[in-house]
Design a protein that fits this description.
The chain is mainly beta. 3% of the residues lie in helices and 41% in strands. It is built from 4 helices and 54 strands. The protein has an 18-stranded parallel β-sheet that branches. Strands 27, 30, 31, 33, 38, 39, 40 and 42 form an 8-stranded antiparallel β-sheet that branches. 41% of the residues are buried. The C terminus is likely disordered.
Length: 745
């Protein structure tokens, strides 16, 4: 069934519930309180509905209950309900008949139906990344809109709608139609609509006849973007919409009042056609839009922009079939030229607005461009003796002191998105070389201290008998864990500036120091937030002959003990938005855990009919944290990794980490009663180009018909001199299947 979450149906102990939220991997919150307690009871979770129309249809009872027949429409005011339908990425929805939104007979601004997508299942602003409604199978009959909205206050968000084509004359179809005299006060947001045709090329992706708001949506590769039509007494509000590549008009405003702000309409036959007074008027509050062409010189408000250069300068990609209409983070007029709108604060993929000063025009809010670094060390090569400078300035560093393998080399370690360096606190360092920064400096780094003593160096350019212009960024000399910047004018003559907050051990922290000697201003930022400022730091940066060194304070035993990642040096003072951007991508360790948390072990049984149930029985688990080794070329038992569970059916899971002393292969398998379980052998290869490195390994199996006295165990072998296995866990979970049908869309 895929993800379990809001909107799903839970049946347990004869009671039926709708899930409101999933609080963690083993707990959900349901809509109504249980009539009785259910402990270790079998349960089934299924999708409540297989298609959107079934959810939207009127409920079969009043008041509507989870056990009621029919859909979730009905008397929403009388039942005091907001009815939310949640879609999941179980597969592409391919309706073969019009989806009519007409199921709520009594609704208002606080009692309405809303169609959304579960968090974690939503698109990221590009095609194919979320829940898809595909119109390929729609019939060529009159008014075969993909969505025919007749309910007032209906809301729809986060869907990708594609491949709707109405090319039969006089059938009047379009992807979304807001029906005249019935719909109204509708909100459509975070939609991705593309590759479509509407009837006659004049009706658009969204054809609007009543009051509506469309925001944070992208529409591309069609014949017409958005159209208003009908009586002159309704209002369409467009907010941060992007329309691209229409064979006809981007925004065609015929009737009613149009309020349009922060909207892009480009690469169309006509970007805005809003010249239809008196039937269609543009509200004077409109403006801050981006486009090239209009009809009869009538513009959509004021403070508008024109695109610079080509569409490639505006969007990430306009390659056919690979469109990415997120905004480029430099070189275009959509950046910082929008107006603030008080009714929402996110964009097409849930980034907050604004990212850098003012709002962007269009559906996407673009993070500030990463500043250009003097030197940048991501430590992502994962091996070797070189700390590559990714700034393009050629200032590569060397692990240790002389470029050879030695005790002062920090170790490569795994973190989210790449690698980091681990420093031992004794002599580890990265030698960057003699590079001078004059008048200003900014240093950005991710650090994770194992232990903090006094004056532990993050980075320095200093000799033990200091000279003019030597500097260091380190912990303070009291051992309290605050950060400290020092700038010397000579031996023992220094000026010091400290952070206000201490940095915690055993967690990743983003730290930034900035200094501009022209204003005597120094600042510390911790995790993107300004921590301390001084405007009285009067010592100046000076040219000196010392090397920049990462992981050492430049004197004695001032070595860093812990992990450092993504060190960047700038020759100017970073701004707050730039610091925010640098701190935006968090770093986490990816080492395997020492042991599994039993509360997090969860299984689902799926039978041949597609049904799933959960089990309440308790797993058996063994853990081992001490290292074990083998030199055997044939499979032998792994110490501490065996369980004799008794007769029954079981789900088996093993996880550990393995390394080899030299080039070679290690093989790890699951065994039952002395025989290898098919398809469970895992191979780990160590290459000569890599230093000794621990690699994670995992295997699993489903066993049926285990008899009493049979043992489940882990065995391994190696082709290298010696293999070492570190922390490891074996879990055996009893299974109790039930034949429960699972409905998927």
């Amino acid at each position: 069934m895929g993800a379990v979450g809001p909107g799903d149906k839970l049946v347990i102990g004869g009671e039926t519930f709708f899930i409101l939220s999933r609080t963690d991997t083993t707990h959900v919150e349901v809509q109504d309180a249980a009539a009785s307690t259910h402990s270790n009871a079998a349960y089934a979770i299924t999708r409540a509905y297989n298609d959107i129309q079934s959810w939207e249809d009127p409920c079969g009872a009043t008041p509507c209950q989870p056990t009621s027949s029919g859909g979730r429409g009905g008397d929403l005011v009388g039942d005091n309900r907001i009815e939310v339908g949640v879609a999941y990425k179980d597969g592409v929805f391919m309706p073969s008949a019009r989806i009519t939104i007409d199921g709520s007979e009594n609704n208002d601004a606080t009692h309405y139906m809303s169609l959304t997508v579960a968090a974690g299942q939503r698109h990221n602003g590009t095609a194919g990344t979320g829940v898809i409604i595909d119109g390929t199978n729609m019939p060529a009959v009159a008014s075969a809109h993909l969505f025919f909205i007749r309910d007032k206050y209906f809301r729809m968000e986060w869907l990708e709608i594609r491949n709707y084509h109405d090319e039969v004359p006089q059938t009047w179809g379009d992807p979304i139609n807001l029906n005249e005299n019935n719909s109204g006060e509708n909100l459509l947001s975070h939609l991705l609509i593309h590759d479509y045709t509407s009837n006659g090329g004049v009706r658009g992706a969204i054809d609007i006849y009543e009051n509506a708001t469309v925001r944070n949506s992208i529409i591309y590769n069609g014949d017409l973007g958005i159209r208003t039509y009908g009586a002159p007494d309704f209002t369409l509000t467009l907010q941060n919409v992007t329309i691209y590549n229409m064979t006809g008009t981007g925004v065609n405003h015929n009737d009613g009042t149009l309020i349009v702000n922060n909207t892009i309409s480009v690469a169309t036959n006509r970007d805005f056609d809003v010249d239809n007074t008196p039937d269609g008027v543009v509200d004077p509050s409109s403006g801050n839009n981006l486009y090239s062409t209009v009809h009869n010189s009538v513009h959509p408000g004021s403070n508008n922009q024109s695109p610079l250069g080509t569409m490639e300068d505006l969007f990430i990609s306009v390659v056919a079939g690979s469109e990415d209409l997120h905004i480029e983070n430099s070189g275009n007029n959509a950046l910082n030229n929008g107006t603030t709108i008080g009714t929402f604060s996110d964009d097409i993929d849930e980034d907050s607005r604004p990212q850098d000063g003012a709002w962007e025009i269009g559906a996407d809010e673009t993070p500030a461009a990463a500043p250009s670094a003097f030197a940048s060390y991501a430590f992502d090569t994962g091996g070797g003796q070189t700390a590559v400078d990714s700034s393009g300035n050629g200032r590569d560093g060397t692990l240790g002191t002389d470029g050879t393998v030695e005790s002062s080399d920090p170790s490569w370690s795994c973190v989210s998105g790449g690698n980091a360096l681990e420093f031992d606190g004794s002599d580890d360092q990265v030698l960057v070389g003699d590079h001078d920064l004059l008048s200003a400096i900014s240093i950005s780094a991710w650090i994770n201290w194992d232990a903090v003593t006094t004056s532990d160096g993050i980075i320095s350019k200093r000799t033990s008998t200091e000279v003019l212009g030597n500097w260091a960024l380190r912990t303070d000399d009291s051992g309290g864990g605050t950060l400290e910047w020092l700038l010397w004018t000579g031996s023992g003559a220094r000026q010091v500036f400290n952070s206000t907050s201490a940095v915690n051990t055993d967690e990743w922290t983003h730290v930034v120091f900035t200094f501009d000697e022209t204003t005597n201003t120094a600042r510390f930022y911790i995790d993107g937030t300004l921590d301390n400022t001084t405007t009285t730091f009067t010592n100046d940066m000076e040219d000196n002959a010392q090397d920049i060194i990462i992981g050492w304070g430049g004197q004695g035993s001032q070595y860093f003990d812990g992990h450092i990642d993504d060190v960047r040096i700038y020759d100017y003072e970073l701004t707050q938005p730039e610091v925010t951007t640098l701190a935006g991508s968090t770093v986490t360790d990816c080492s395997p855990p020492a042991s599994a948390n039993l509360d997090q072990i969860h299984y689902r049984w799926r039978d041949d009919t597609g049904g799933e149930t959960g089990g309440g029985s308790t797993p058996t688990q063994v853990n081992a944290t001490g290292d074990t080794t083998t030199t055997s070329a044939t499979d032998v038992a792994v110490a501490g990794m065996s369980i004799t569970p008794g007769a029954g059916d079981y789900l088996v899971w093993f996880s550990g980490s393995v390394e080899n002393s030299a080039t070679g292969y290690q093989y790890v398998s699951l065994y039952l009663d002395g025989s290898q379980i098919t398809h469970t052998e895992r191979e780990i290869r160590t290459e000569s180009s890599l230093p000794p490195t621990s690699f994670p390994v995992a295997s699993h199996a489903r066993l049926t018909g285990v008899t009493a006295g049979q043992t489940i165990e882990v065995r391994w072998r190696t082709t290298a001199p010696t293999a070492t296995m570190h922390e490891r866990t074996l879990v055996v979970q009893p299974m109790t299947p039930a034949d429960t049908f699972q409905a998927t869309a």
